[in-house]
């Protein structure tokens, strides 16, 4: 279960606060997965005490977009901490789906990759198994396949942290790269942080989704949680 | 190896200080629901008196079988339209989910207990997390809530109070999740955002 609370001392109208929170959650807490299970209790609250002496912020205020962006940034950091603490996790993975026709398609594809047990096992095993990523893209529950065009599909691993700047092109314009530099892949996958970039090449929308690997530890924790 | 990994996560992701928004006080207590005396009940109070009171917003699970605290709080927020909420009660160790009518009554009882102590009405929201399918230990919750709300020194707006609150929400988490930032808006107004979260398993939210 995910629980969260964000507090601020700005005066913000009730409808503007709901707008800010809903928008921030859609780009943060609703873009994470540890195990693909949705709890019966997930809840995020936001309270604005209004203790700072300034004009009430409403949706028409000039400051509204500035505050919305700052709340979104904080929500993303809080959501990422949940993934970093994923039960038994050893990897923190950003799945960045870009150049999609719309955000919804980008998110469905990113979430499908993030919830694939086989992708998560490969990440735990530090195996550059791009076939499983492609397979997940192929079964993503998209309304239609307008965002998908094999000839413009590119998938790559991008290094983060210690491997910053390293890039491994796994699929180039729909053609698998069979000459993967395995040593480079091993070095990147040995890091805690990794980014999987899926470039659909069919539009301009994108989604960042955060997930972790699936380890033996996860099963140990959950095999007898009720007790 | 696991202990080392947990220790390094704590070092890397848990702050050692912070800035906290004006108009809030938070407190937490161990009621005995969680084993070995861990903190398992937290309360967030909005203390700034302003006309119309603080404003509130929420997103909840879209799981069809919503837990009792979700059903109760959704109804509260719908009724007050985001106005006048001044307390949030958070318990961990028991999710009060899939608990039927008894679960709903227990959730309402927790609200009543809090509002009786606070001298308020219809101003409280709930969050619960933990084992699904078991009822709240109402004797422990009632004793803990009374003890916490009757001791004003248990509440603060400092780093340790907020860190303890984030620990009181944890279940299988290995470290508390607390972030705070101060911002200066165009025009010079400085304001503060503070956030706490919890979660480590059963995580694939789609809240609305």
Structure write-up:
The complex is a heterodimer of chains A (227) and B (208). Chain A is α/β, with parallel strands linked by helices. Chain A is built from 7 helices and 9 strands, in the order E-H-E-E-H-E-H-H-H-E-E-E-H-E-E-H. In chain A, strands 2-9-4-8-5-6-7 form a 7-stranded mixed sheet, with helices on both faces. A two-stranded parallel sheet of chain A has the order 1-3. In chain A, helix 1 packs across helix 2 (64-84) and helix 3 crosses helix 5 (130-139). The longest helix of chain A is centred in the N-terminal third of the chain and has 21 residues, at 64-84. Chain B is built from 5 helices and 7 strands, in the order αβββαβαβααββ. The termini of chain B are far apart. In chain B, helix 2 (68-80) packs across helix 3 and helix 3 packs parallel to helix 4. Chain B has helices at 2-13, 68-80, 100-118, 138-149, 159-168, and strands at 24-29, 41-46, 55-60, 87-94, 124-131, 177-184, 190-198. Helices cover 32% and strands 25% of the residues of chain B. In chain B, a hairpin with a 5-residue loop joins strand 6 and strand 7 (190-198). At the A-B interface, strand 1, helix 1, strand 2, strand 3 and helix 2 of A face helix 1, strand 3, helix 2, strand 5 and strand 6 of B. Strand 3 (43-48) of chain A pairs antiparallel with strand 3 (55-60) of chain B, so a sheet runs across the interface.
Q: Overall pLDDT of chain A, averaged? A: 95
Largest sheet of chain B: 4 strands, mixed
Query: How many beta strands in the DSSP annotation of chain A?
Result: 9
The main β sheet of chain A shows up as: 7 strands, mixed
Percent of residues of chain A in helical segments? 25-40%
The largest inter-chain interface, given as chain pair and residues per side, is: A-B, 72 and 80 residues
How far the N terminus sits from the C terminus of chain B, by CA atoms, comes to: 39 Å
Proportion of beta-strand residues of chain A: 15-25%
Q: What's the multimeric state?
A: heterodimer
As laid out across the biggest beta sheet of chain B, the strand order is 1-2-4-5
Helix and strand pattern of chain A: EHEEHEHHHEEEHEEH
Average pLDDT reading of chain B = 95
Low-confidence stretches of chain A: none
What structural category arises from helix and sheet content of chain B?
Answer: alpha+beta
Instruction: Please indicate the percent range of residues of chain B in DSSP E strands (runs of 2 or more).
Output: 15-25%
**What structural class results from the helix and strand content of chain A?**
alpha/beta
**Which overall shape of chain B is indicated by the principal axes computed on the Cα atoms?**
globular
Q: What percent of the residues of chain B sit in helical stretches (DSSP H or I)?
A: 25-40%
Using the alpha-carbon principal axes, give the shape of chain A. globular
Number of strands of chain B: 7
């Amino acid at each position: 279960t995910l629980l969260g609370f964000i507090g601020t001392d700005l005066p913000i109208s009730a409808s503007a606060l709901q707008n800010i929170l809903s928008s921030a959650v859609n780009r943060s807490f609703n873009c994470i997965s540890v195990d693909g299970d949705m709890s019966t209790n997930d809840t995020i609250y936001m309270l604005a005490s209004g203790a700072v002496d300034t004009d009430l912020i409403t949706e028409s205020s000039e400051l509204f977009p500035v505050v919305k962006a700052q709340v979104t940034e904080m929500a993303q950091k809080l959501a990422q901490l949940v993934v970093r603490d994923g039960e038994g996790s050893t990897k923190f993975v950003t799945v960045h789906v870009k150049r999609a026709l719309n955000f919804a398609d980008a998110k469905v594809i990113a979430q499908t990759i993030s919830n694939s047990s086989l992708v998560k096992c490969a990440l735990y095993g530090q195996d550059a198994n791009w076939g499983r990523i492609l397979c997940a893209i192929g079964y993503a529950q998209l309304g239609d396949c307008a965002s998908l065009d094999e000839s413009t599909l590119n998938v790559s691993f991008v290094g983060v942290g210690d491997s910053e700047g390293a890039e491994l092109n796994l699929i180039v314009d729909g053609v698998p790269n069979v000459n993967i530099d395995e040593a480079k892949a091993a070095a990147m996958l040995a890091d805690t942080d990794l980014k999987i970039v899926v470039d659909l090449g069919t539009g301009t929308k994108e989604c960042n989704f955060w997930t972790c690997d699936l380890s033996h530890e996860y099963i140990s924790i959950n095999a007898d949680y009720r007790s | 190896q696991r202990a080392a990994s947990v220790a390094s996560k704590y070092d890397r992701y848990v702050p050692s200080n912070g800035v906290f928004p004006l108009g809030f006080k938070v407190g937490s207590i161990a009621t005995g629901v969680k084993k070995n005396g861990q903190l398992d009940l937290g309360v967030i109070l909005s203390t700034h008196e302003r006309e119309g009171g603080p404003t509130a917003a929420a997103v909840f699970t879209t799981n069809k079988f919503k837990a009792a605290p979700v059903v109760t709080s959704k109804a509260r927020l719908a009724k007050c339209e985001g106005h006048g909420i001044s307390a949030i009660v958070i318990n961990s160790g028991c999710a009060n989910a899939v608990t039927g009518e008894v679960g709903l009554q227990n959730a309402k009882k927790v609200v009543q207990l809090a509002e009786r102590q606070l001298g308020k009405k219809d101003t409280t929201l709930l969050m619960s997390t933990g084992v699904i399918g078991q009822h709240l230990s109402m004797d422990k919750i009632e004793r803990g809530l009374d003890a916490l709300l009757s001791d004003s020194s248990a509440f603060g707006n400092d780093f340790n109070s907020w860190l303890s609150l984030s620990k009181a929400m944890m279940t299988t988490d290995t470290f508390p999740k607390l972030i705070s930032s101060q911002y200066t808006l165009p025009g010079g107004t400085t304001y503060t955002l503070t956030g706490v979260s919890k979660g480590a398993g059963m995580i694939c939210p789609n809240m609305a």
